[in-house]
Design goal:
The chain is α/β, with parallel strands linked by helices and 546 residues long. It has 22 helices and 18 strands. α3 (40-51) runs parallel beside α21 (517-533) and α6 (148-173) runs antiparallel to α7.
Length: 546
């Protein structure tokens, strides 16, 4: 049911919440903290600090707050850019739901997706991901009747790795004097899983290549195929969706719209078109930020939700970064995969078009590693994955806002190196050859859409393709990556990926601190705020939201 707050909010008010443009004369400092970037990690950190009595200023370079949770519109259509479904929040006592309720003052509502939330199609064979652990196992055993032992052990390992993650990330929030003696006990159980690849673990359970392909069909949610991804990230994503998916009522833009008032209630502000050029560091301490227009804003601490590449590689004085060996640290990680996304609009309702809520994961072959490797070297090779999502079918408030219209997003991977020749061009002004390449990719994604949703042929009113250069333009991620740094086994060995940095009062937050996805980035925000406040915020939130 759509709440009264959402029903009564005008479109103008929604716009004002997340599109307040930076001007120096509207600052109401002094501020206790400045947060660079308004992704879910940055907003969560800011909201938690605000609830603890701090005045927080969030600065966003884009024209709308929210990072990958924001929505955008073209010609009367609306699409989400990064949030397609979220697990666990339908359970009011889950940690994730309680965190969202806390940082939004309970204003964010969720709609549960149906029992089948992911539909996997591999080489023409269809498999349903079904909500509920026992139902999931039963459905898999129906597809693979000889693999019950492997399926049971797989689910056991997913839970074991996920449970071990709690202490692992908690250790990264501890002060060094406490972390040193406890680190082996708190991290060893998790590292036992994170040091192995997803393929290694599942191959130890079964020799059935088709089962391996089906079990790893959600690898697009973390961006690395089985032989390259850590089993730890696979386990955390798989467990996250074991009980099904959910979608924000009113669209993913509601996430920022419901967090911003909490920050403002604490005396803070969230401002857009405010690109930070540099973190001001004096005597080894972060003292504030300098914007691209030259304005300087001071605060007691600075939090970066811009990712480690931007924070250490762009926002700090290069000489300072070298003296702290931060350049060497960045050489230890790589950006995650980039993507293309086709945004499609149709002048009929989702119901009339026969669109349901389940996401489609479409693959040409069961060997995801092989298809990715082939595609990375040959752009004409079959698309290694096509993911199709239907925001207009998932959102119960959609028809009220956009009557008689429907949208979908078709997403695939695309190596950034394919686009480097247009790197120095401007958005919407990249030339005819770029537009021709985009059209080629558009038609390839549309082929997949029409193959599995033939009723849409002739129904499409609008479509627009974004490329890694689009992502780079709007998010400032250097190679158009969407998941921060790669989730390889080596990533989890790097103890410097934590909220604290070598510079006093400069902190990291978001997906590079924990993991990708809205859940990982949100927990990154909680971890960072916990470090800054020297409090266990998870325990406090769980206690306050009983």
């Amino acid at each position: 049911m759509v709440g009264g707050y959402l029903k009564d909010m005008t479109a103008v008010h929604q716009h004002q919440l997340t599109n307040r443009i930076y001007r120096k004369n509207i600052l109401n400092g002094p501020y206790d903290a400045i947060v660079i970037g308004s992704g879910i990690g940055g907003l969560a950190t800011a909201a938690l600090l605000s609830k603890a009595g701090q005045r927080v200023l969030v600065l966003e370079r884009h024209y709308v707050a929210g990072g990958f949770t924001h929505t955008f519109s073209r010609k009367g259509y609306e699409w989400d850019v990064g949030i397609h479904y979220i697990g666990e929040v339908h359970r009011q006592r889950s940690i994730l739901r309680r965190l969202f309720d806390f940082i939004t003052d309970g204003a964010l509502e969720w709609s549960r997706m149906p029992e089948v939330y992911d539909r996997v199609i591999i080489a023409g064979d269809e498999y349903d991901y079904i909500a509920g652990v026992e139902a999931f196992k039963a459905r898999l055993c129906g597809y693979f009747p000889d693999e019950k032992k492997a399926v049971d052990e797989y689910v056991r390992l997913v839970f074991a790795a996920t449970n071990a993650a709690k202490n692992f990330f908690s250790a990264r929030a501890m002060p060094s004097w406490m972390r040193f003696p406890l680190k082996p006990v708190m991290t060893s159980p998790f590292l036992k899983y994170s040091r192995k690849t997803t393929r290694e673990v599942i191959s130890s359970l079964t020799s059935n290549a088709k089962l391996l392909g089906v079990l790893t069909a959600q690898y697009g949610d973390y961006g690395l195929p089985p032989a390259r991804s850590s089993f730890a990230i696979h386990a955390m994503v798989a467990k996250h969706y074991f009980d099904g998916g959910n979608y924000p009522v009113g669209g993913s833009g509601r996430i920022a719209e419901t967090i911003v008032p909490v920050i403002e209630k604490g005396g803070g502000k969230v401002l857009v078109r405010a690109e930070v050029k540099e973190v001001i560091v004096e005597n080894g301490r972060a003292m504030g930020v300098r914007l691209e227009n030259g304005d300087e804003i001071r605060a007691g601490s600075v939090v970066s939700d811009a990712g480690v590449f931007n924070t250490f590689g762009k926002l700090l004085d290069p000489a300072l970064a070298r003296s702290l060996k931060l350049d060497r640290k960045l050489n230890q990680v790589k950006p995650s995969l980039a993507h293309i996304c086709l945004y499609v609009g149709m002048k009929e309702s989702a119901a009339n078009l026969g669109l349901n809520q389940a996401n489609y994961w479409i693959y040409p072959d069961y060997d995801h590693d092989k298809t990715i490797a082939r595609y990375e070297t040959d752009p004409s090779a079959p698309l290694p994955v096509t993911y199709i999502s239907f925001p207009s079918a998932k959102d119960p408030d959609w028809e009220r806002r956009h009557p008689g219209r429907a949208t979908l997003e078709a997403i695939g991977f695309a190596p950034y190196k394919w686009f480097t020749s247009w790197e120095k061009t401007s958005w919407k002004k990249r030339g005819n050859d770029y537009e021709a390449f985009k059209e080629e990719l558009t038609q390839r994604l549309l082929e997949q859409v029409y193959r599995y949703l033939p009723q849409l042929r002739g129904k499409i009113d609008f479509c627009e393709l974004s490329t890694p250069l689009s992502t780079r333009h709007f998010t400032n991620y250097g190679q158009g990556e969407i998941y921060g740094i790669e989730h390889t086994p080596e990533r989890f060995e790097l103890s410097w990926l934590k909220p604290q940095t070598p510079i006093r009062n400069l902190y990291l937050t978001g997906q590079d601190v924990v993991t990708d996805g809205i859940g990982g980035a949100l927990f990154g925000g909680v971890l960072t705020a916990s470090v800054m406040l020297k409090r266990n915020l998870i325990k406090e939130v769980m206690r306050q939201t009983v």
